[in-house]
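Example record

The entry below shows one chain as it appears in the dataset: sequence first, then structure tokens.
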Amino acid sequence: MKDTNKKAVCIMSGGMDSTLAAYMMKNQGYEIVAVHFNYDQRTEAKELECFESICKNLNVTEQYILDLDFFKQLGASALTDKSIEVPTNGIEEGVPVTYVPFRNGIFLSMAAAIAEKESAEVIAIGVVEEDSSGYPDCREDYIAAMQKAINLGTKDETDIEIKMPLVHLKKSEIVKEALALDVPLQLTWSCYKNEEKACGVCDSCRLRLNGFKTAGVKDPIVYI
């Protein structure tokens, strides 16, 4: 008998935002197809560890862990080029040096191939416009355009919606929503620099800590 469960391909980094997006899809009745990318980012090992722990907590049965050495060759980002320092002096103006060129576009393209193969009707991505200021591939208009392109470039019977449930949320609202859905935030990772203890001073750590502070909750992960 054909499986009639509705499926959502969830792009999951091991971070708080993409984890919440996956739990929201699960809460809406989707079977989760979890996709994770190793792209030689500084915290690759930690992110993979978090992804695997989160998938276990979510009872995910279908996982794709994809290795992309292209980004290492490309460089051009503090996340993938270790000769470029991760900034720790607060939010940068313009496009941050931690921006990885067209990363979400590449991730969404690969997720689309998986979605078509898995007959999934949804791709979920945890982009957030507010705290991704300067990241052009996190904008709602861009994701909507990508959805149109994906459906133009796939089979006629393929109809994929890209869901971005966090796109208009503030980080404090993300924390509150995650707590409401019993998301295991202690299993997530946001730091750009370190894998053992979070640095607390990179842009991603600052945004995360401020979100917890504004929400009036203590962050369960360990910081230096």
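Notes for this example: The first strand starts at residue 7 and ends at 11. The first helix runs from residue 16 to 27.
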